[in-house]
Each structure stands twice: as C-alpha cells, then as structure tokens.
Amino acid sequence: MKAFDLAERFRCPVFLLTDKELNTTTTTVEVDDYEKPAVRERAVLPATEPPYRYLPADDVPPLAQYGGDGAVRFTGSTHDERAIITKSPAKVAEMNEHLRAKIEDHAAEIELVVNDLQPGATTLLISYGITAGGMREAVAQIRASGKAVSALTLQSLWPVPEVAIRAALDGITRIVVAELNHGQYRREIERLANGIEVVGLHRVDGELIAPESFVEAIR
Fold it and tell me: What domain range is 192 assigned to?
C-alpha cells in the first residue's frame, strides 16, 4: 500500500525489494499493531492544465484524467509539458531537473526506517532485509548483558534516508553496517558518517549473518 501511494504521489516507479530468506521465514507479528497507510485523496488535474509541468521543479502535478474525451499522451522519451517529444536543450534540462528534484527534495517524506536507539550507546548497528532480523536478536542479547547499543533498520534504501541516519549518529563513535555482500550500502553510510568509524559486517557464502556475529563485532 505504501509503495502504491508513493508511486502515485511522485508519479514514478517504486521497486519493492525482498529476498528468498525473508519470504520463507515465519515470523510472529502483532496484527493489531499494524497501521495501514492512509489512502491519499486523489487530486484531479483540470483539463486546461499541462499534465507534465516542470516548474517549480520539486512539484508533482496531479495525474491527468484518462478515459474521457480528452487525449492523454504517454511516452518514455524526453518530452515537454504535454508529453510531446522534444529535443530542446532547455526543455530537456527542465524535465531532468524536475525528475531529480521531485524525489531528492522530498527524501524525508519517502524514507522508511525503524529506530531502536538507546541513550548512552556509542555503537550503532545498521542493517536491512533478512539481516536486520539477526541484528534485532543481537541487540536484545547485548542489552541483556548490560551494554548499551543502538540499531537502525532501513526499510527504504533509496533515496538514502539521510535525515534518519544523521539523527541516529548523536553520541555514536562506531557504526557497524551488516549486509550480505561485500559492503555496497556501507559506502552510503561512510558518506554520512562525518569521521565516525564505519565497520562492515559481511557474508557472501550463502549463509545468513548470525546474531553472534553482531555481538562479536562490537566487542
């Protein structure tokens, strides 16, 4: 529901990423705690307005009314405000700036994360997907031993949830980024770390990262 909402809100594709392990894992959840995304009231574009206006760059015009008497054009090529293909450098630049701004200027609205931040923690664990399950179990073990640790589960990978990541870095001196590759997303965290030590916790042998690996990584 959130993916469809964002796709309509920003008029762009939304890719829902998953993995085999996540799909075949059984998890107990509290159904009553699930909050459904609100259904956005669909705005109606007046027939007199261009359906692909570029200005202001970060604005997203409502969807055109299709199925009626007026013609609605769609194209994957560079086009003007009415979907007429163009090679005008000025129009091409305006369209590409619009495609960038409507996403990047609204990144805080798009980002999805789960914060589990503990006061006094100096280590922050970051993960996503199936690996975040091992991270959550490790956090419980670490805290049960009397140590403080914070965790951030990323549920949206792009645009990078910079606002949430930066907010989680308060008081942190070490970041552990866990992922089932050689450290692809770790590079994004390093870009935001501002001198904080960033350590990668990786596994590429087809097995999952166990909670014990997280515990070992912060010792």
Answer: 111-217
